[in-house]
Amino acid sequence: MSKSGMESDNVHRLFIYGTLKRGQPNHFLLADRTNGWATFIGCGCTRTKYPLIISTNANIPSVLIKEEGIGHHIQGEIWDVDDKMRATLDEFEGYPDYYDIAHTAVAVEGNQSESPRKEIICLMYAIRSYNRHHLLKLPFHSNYDSNGEHGLPYISENDDYPDFNEAVS
Q: Among 4, 80, 107, 124, which is most exposed with the fewest C-beta within 10 angstroms?
């Protein structure tokens, strides 16, 4: 283990916009040190607009990365993770089967007097393939909260929902 407490020397900077954010249903994955090392860097917003939708019977938030320029600048969190945590998150997100990893520019929140705000490149999980005709009819969100006004709380595979695997495929 390195001096920083990381399992490896590789650091992956991730932009988290959904159920992995602090206060959301799956944040426990980032908080559990047995999954690897993760450090919260700050909050940010994508420089590019994307549709952030909530879909499937499990109410899963997803970014439609192929629809760049449509939707909103997405608010989220910036995290640095090691290889072990990255592997944990890849498995959780269904990468590479269900989700891809894209590079996106993120404006870091902080001192609002800075003009322009600091911009960094982050990795972001985004849905791999989808029914464009169907999903683009759904409401677009700029910020995800499982208990938000949208009324679509996330349903985990651990909840009493017998068809979870069918819902995400």
A: 4
